[in-house]
User: Fold these one by one.
Assistant:
Number 1:
Amino acid sequence: MNNDFKQIPYGICDFKQVRKENKYLVDKSMYFERMERAGNFLFLVRPRRFGKSLFLNMLEAYYDINEKDNFQELFKGMYAAEHPTEYHNKYQVMHLDFSCVGSDIDNLSSNFNNYLTGLCESFIRKYAYLYPKGCEDEVLRGKTGIDMLNRLNNVARDSGCSLYLIVDEYDNFTNNVLNVKGQQAYHDLTHGTGFYRDVFKLFKPMFDRIIMLGVAPITLDDLTSGYNIALNMTIDSRFNQMLGFSEDEVRQMIRYYKDAGAIKPEVTEDGIIADIKPWYDNYCFAKDSFGREPSMFNSDMVCYYMSTLVDTGKKPDELIDPNTMTDYGKLKRLIRIDKTEGKRTEIIHNIVEEGFIKARVVSHFPAERMMEFGNFVSLLYYYGMLTIGGVIGERLKLIIPNNNVRLQYYQYLLDEYSSIHSVDISGLDDYFDQAALDGNWQPLLSFICKAYHDTTAVRQLIEGERNLQGFMNAYLTLTNYYLVAPEMEFSHGYCDFFLLPNYTVYPMVAHSYILELKYLKTDATEAETAQQWTEAVAQIKTYAADRKLQTMLHGTQLHLIVVQIKGYDVVKMEEIR
């Protein structure tokens, strides 16, 4: 295999390193001029792992006066080199990354002060040649980080210097405080004389341009109302595609490595897209962009997949980057902040059971109001747990973006079910083996139905067809043999579940399944039970007759299974032939 090709910068956020080492880069520099036109004070929220840090690092190199002589080398072949703005390399840039403050919540104040002090020291030394003699010493005499920032502001203004502030992960440690310590500790940090609020007061008058990025709009709303004249780019259609990859950008990457001989000939461009699209794609961040612009892939996930494919010659065994497990932990803590999770849990159930929720996305809100319906749903949207999937009147149809996120919801439900009634899942792998390899599906479905019975019998949490489907879905996703597709359309109808064989990873899977679940209330009559069964049999046979279904089986034997449950007891469970 030819090794003369650019490496994929998976996990690298240093723009100069990417360019120096000639790594593959998706050009996003065309957004610099849009940002300049939009305003001097900008704010953007995007989910984790969407390329925020690399983008900001590139932005720093573009505006840093110290990189003026390196501009053409750094941006050669990129949009910015051919269309430079008048402000490129005109600023002294201070780049703060608050994820570096640390996770020691009990010592945040001193850790933050140490971090800010170090940044101010390195800043004034980096740009000392632009200041009159003595300015560097004046700044370094500051006794605290805030004191040094004030002194730096004074000498910069006296010297007529232009300053650009970049803040990455502006809400990193404040979100940790909120998630771990609760709302009171968070309030003390961001209100009144809280040290973080104090430093925020200095930013607006000190810097000529500011860009702040984070994962939620809560902290900014709480820190200062004076910052509200900044443009919130988060839901602005002009910046919908600024972070993440469009399908065209992903296909360009695939073609590059195909042309370079880094991907085996039998691995096709369309095959890769078919692999990753259900797992990484489908994000839309602006109402006006829905249906008009392509949906966006999670860029970090694409790089994870492609780097594995290029380096090993085969795609990852696990399509989900293991690093995303930290996202699930944050979701769980978010729901249980201050142990008042009741309404939030209900919202999670509704999203999983319906597949969507109708709401307005709120642009900003304080932490003490985050439990309100619209604010909490908006927070799920900002965290990447929901995305725009349609417009319904004045509201948005917010959907689960992809299988990666869907699995996090199901994991939450499984944990919740387990807290009600502990279910031993140690034998599930054997049951999945029997269903996938041998076509013996009864042990698997019997196990899940018994778990449903036991959990529901303990507490009437799960009653109704939608809740039954959510329970079944959560358990079915515990295997990698199948891509579980709920509500798949066949013959102008929607089956409850299609277990699509994950044949590229597990070619040994020999059996696929359509499952039709039917729920009856406990007072249903025998006649109603019999009629429902007859209708279910007719439905599932209609689904099986769909022509496109045959193209999805990949040589596996299809089984049609109907499960009928009354209350929380199985009435009938049979394979339809």
Number 2:
Amino acid sequence: MPNRLANEDSPYLQQHKDNPVDWYPWCDEAFERARNEKRPIFISIGYSSCHWCHVMEHEVFENEAIAAYLNEHFVSIKVDREERPDLDKYYQEVHQLLNRRPGGWPTSIFCTPDNKPFFAGTYIPPQSRDRMLGFEELTRIIATKVAEGDEKLFQNADDIQNYLKPEDRPKEATVLKASIIRNFVKQAQHNYEELNGGFSQQPKFPHTSTLNALLDIVLLQRDKEAGTMVTHTLDTMQRGGMYDLVDGGFCRYSVDSEWLVPHFEKMAYDNGLLLELYARTGRMFEERSYTRTAAEIADFMLDKMQKEGLFYSASDADSEGHEGTYFVYAYDEVYEALKAAGFEEKETEAIMQTLHITQTGNFEGKNIVWLENLHERPEWFEKVREVLRKLRQKREYPFIDRKIQTSWNAMMIRGLFELGKSDSTYTDEAVRALEALTNFLMPKGELYHTALIHSTPKIGAFLEDYAYLGTAFVKAYEATLDDAYLVQAQQMANHALETLYDNGRWYFSRGEFVTDADPTDSSYPGSVGVMVDLLLSLGILLEEKYRRFAFKTLEYYSAKLAKTPIYFPYLLNQAVRYLFEDLIVKADANKLLEAGDALSRVTYPFVHVKATEDEAYMLCGVQSCFAQLHSADDIAPTIQEKFST
């Protein structure tokens, strides 16, 4: 018999509706029952495409004996971290505090009957093993201690609760100088993995905001070390493995240092951020393979991961009961398919060798395809890729989480606008997607965070939604010069300033938990840096007052930023932008649109465009203009001459 989660919209909660656990969604009823019956609370946080969430569900939450004990002694609550990032952020901080290391998913939190956390873990096996306390034993210990009113447990919970109050935290400031760039590059080099690129060994994540910051440093200062880190990493990531050469799109991370064996889930945010990065780097460096990868990311998302202009959250790593089943190939099936497609035996063997498809395989006896040549694909590649796609069509496609999230859709839209500078068809797709998103998640002008497609939005927006959507509106304005987008960008900033800002400090939410916004970048750039991005853009495009808010924000976070900029690459980038100054190109709207190709060749990273009544191209900084040009072809060299270092 389904539990209460059957009434929820979230695909992740729906996945647990048939568990024998008597799950509650996050609701007042659950907490009231815990208080009244003096039961400890168990909170489980995850998301629909999380592999280890599936493992824990199968091993623990589908276990009848464990479920019966939970139902008798606990109030159990399921949370979709993509639906409620405010709750997830709070409990990840709890995990960090209790374990002195970052958490992850699934997140397992135990609280007192009045919802004060005292224990935090991630995946917990059903029984104790390898010096890891099992879920069954752990719950019996906790239930006993809570029932007995264990004084130490309740005191610890009170201490944790007091520490987590954001108003108790001190702040300090320092002067940010251009020398922070060299500090950042050195810290990036310290983490850089020279053989395969990237900034870790294993697991290996793309660290998009670090690469973006390094790219801007290359464009500002022609830093060769930074340039090598960017291009080598982009080269090795796109050769296959974590990058899906068959369907396009990136998986979330690689479990090895070679970018070969991915965790096969594909997230909208990763693909939006990498689309923007590859498109921009391809244009700046005139590297066609990067632009091609960007186009393949966009095409994958438009084909498999969107409906009516709205982008889904994620696709799962698992299908047919196993991780990666949809993505990998047996040697014999590919060999026979190539022969059937008309390839000669020697040619087939050469193709198999080039794609690294062997009889022993490189993933659990099967094969993940990848290419050694990073820039030029073989002449036969497109035909062979179609053969490989047809083999996949016979398989079950991984589960798709059809939640629509404002911030993640905005990331995709930003990427499409960036790619649109090389191919205008993607600008059209970006405009379509932005209209669909605002119609769905900003009805009547009120912004929401997420909703299942074709449902009614219920969860209000968080800081990341205002920040990312605001920057997407800025991109839309500069691509189309439609003033309505600039007005909407300003509305996003104004609402965030009114509700989530306090003299340089930003809050992610001010709902059930008051949570600080992240200046750090984790899975994707923290909302503080993106908000500063929006404020600086509005400061040059509309009113100088927004730059003052940006400065106050940089000042508030300056001490940590100056010491360890590697943890804050997006915010670091905005600090560099503030120090080096934004630039704006002003002209009549038609002249600016006609100058699109010339403007796309400008390599100074902090350039904006603004439609005015000027008949010539006016090149201006924050305080004054420095050039009046009559030919668009003069824009790039004039800017290069002024800002070269």
Number 3:
Amino acid sequence: MSQQAMSTSPWSPLKIKTFKWLWLATLVSNTGSWMHETGAGWLISTLTESPVVVALLQTATSLPAFFILLPSGALSDILDRRSYLITGNIGMACVATIIGFLTLTGLIDAWMLLGLTLFMGMGTAMIMPTWQSIIPEVVPRSELQSAIGLNTMGMNISRVIGALVAGTIIAFLGTGLVFVFNAISFLFVIFALKQWKRVPPETKLPPEKFRAAIMTGLRYTKHSPALQATLFRSVGFYLFASVMWAMLPLIARDLLEGGPRTYSFLFAAISIGAISSALLLPKLRRKMNNDQLITGASILFAFGISITALVHVHAIAMLALCLCGAAWITVMTSAQLAAQTALPNWVKSRGLAVFQTFFMGSLAVGPVIWGTVTKYSSLPTAMLAASAGLVVAAFFTRRWPVSGNDQLDHTPSKHWRQPTPVIPVLPEQGPVMVQVQYQVESGQLGEFLGAMEKLGRARQRDGAVFWGIFEEAANPGTYNETYVVPSWLDHLRQHERISKQDAALQQHIKTLLQEGTAPVVSHHIKPIHKPRN
């Protein structure tokens, strides 16, 4: 872990006023959300006997991610993130109010609960990328790891409080009031966001259009090995680990023969393990890198869920699930840090949206698998199968390491001079073809082509829809790099997006050229055809 990405204390981000108030507000809101999760999980188990329908509650929460996360990430990158979050939280408060009303009046049924949970999942998917992307806006990079750790720890503190409070309310007052409190909790976040005086990133260019912004996010993911590695490692864990959340109501009801208090205690045990892990992570990171933490946590989770499946004793189940909670938060924090450090600010929401799409997708597909296995075999069989798959995936996905992501420097280099065309050029005119000619030193061709492949990925991450390197047939040693962007405005955006690490790569390429030569750049743009009279 680089010193730049490592803070001195897990609590130091709380010294930053904006982060502190947002953290406290989300602590209250997440408490309401976990009360909702606990209440909805228990309510669905009382409304139906089908394990598939019970598991579908988790799918309803996660499924919207497939369709909404990337568009919402694009909106977050092109709109004001503060206003976007306020709007999303107002919408979720309204849905929570409706669920509370229907439950209190006794009008709710299993399918109605699944439908409204789907709407809550849509709201969550709308704001998830934005919540993650504002962290680097309110804390410096040196505090990023601790800020992510505090957020995940706060989520689990709220899970403990939410699960215990919800279990007590359900046992004595009924499930409806749980949903009412969740609706009220959103008001705290809205208030905190109102106090945040956000300073938007500096740019002289207009925001991207919605569809183009989505395509840019996908293109960045396609050409970012760092982000792709994070996706592979995350899916390898969450697809199998989702068995815990999907089957938790049945673990409490069937394996342990308990009621709502047992369910809430299991929730709390998971969260206690998660909080303990969050406090220990700064020390662990001094000895282990991200890849080692993810592999070790995967094995620990598999051990914990296997013990829960085999030994049906309350105390042992709580201890085993405590280990699972510690493993879950270790992987979550490590994966989020890897995703954050793989992305520059201009595409952060979209990149995190892709990351969260795979995360939520795993939580949507996994429960269907484990619910089906439970239906046709047994709950312990499903849990043991998931444990075995988790261990295999932990070692298989090690071929995609994520430990080097924190070494990437995405700070804009601003070393490119703005091109000054002689002919009149409209901002939306295009496509634009850029050619860069290089005179390569004899004996440096292999290293030059390897470096150009890396540069090509950077061009495409920053907006190029085509990239290639060509040798002049009549002039050995002369190579022409060619890339195409959709418009002149997109090329100007490339000038703003090029990072210091890409600038260092370009400087290295210059050392491979013939002495006394430099890259020669030319710009070509599709002309505007005027109709003849």
